[in-house]
Amino acid sequence: MKKVLFTILSLFILSCSSDDNDSNDNNDNNPDTSINSDLVGTWVGSAISDDNPTNVGVQTIAFNADGTGSITEVFLLPPETFEAELTWYSNATTIFGTLEGQLDEIGYVLSEQNQMLQLTFPEGDVGEYVRLD
Fold it and tell me: In this predicted model, what pLDDT tens digit does every residue of 42-64 receive, in sequence order?
């Protein structure tokens, strides 16, 4: 399995917290969270295969203003594509993303006038993304 695919999937796996909220909660139920409009847009970064470090791919994450979005990852050699729909909301430092019914928390930092996005995944991996739109 590709390390980056694992990273993406783990991005949305249920965290180990003892939080009593279920994965169907939305930002209306928690006044400390909302949709950070600075995150809305399409972000692109690179991905490296765990099986073959010379196999580099492109990862695209789209955050829509309505709290929906998608993740697409494309590798060229061998050709492989991963696509998934997601829902999300955020606070000042964390994106709460749900993929296939599982909620997870990803730290984020915006920089370069909100044109660069750094994501810190629960297992400690860091991804750098550039805004496309």
Answer: 999 987 776 777 778 999 999 99
- Amino acid identity at 96: F
Q: Which CATH number fits domain 3-15+33-131: 3.10.20.30, 3.40.50.1820, 2.40.128.20, 3.20.20.70?
A: 2.40.128.20
pTM: 0.73
Secondary structure percentages of the chain, helix, strand, coil, to 5: 10, 45, 45
Q: E strand or H helix at 8, and its extent?
A: helix 3-11
Q: Are 111 and 22 in contact (CB under 8 A)?
A: no
C-alpha–C-alpha distance, residues 5 and 2, integer Å: 5
Spatial contact of 114 and 38, defined as CB atoms under 8 Å apart: yes
At 32 the pLDDT is 56
Of 63, 30, 22, 68, residue with least CA distance to 44: 63
Taking 70 as the pLDDT cut, the residues of the chain under it are 1-33, 50
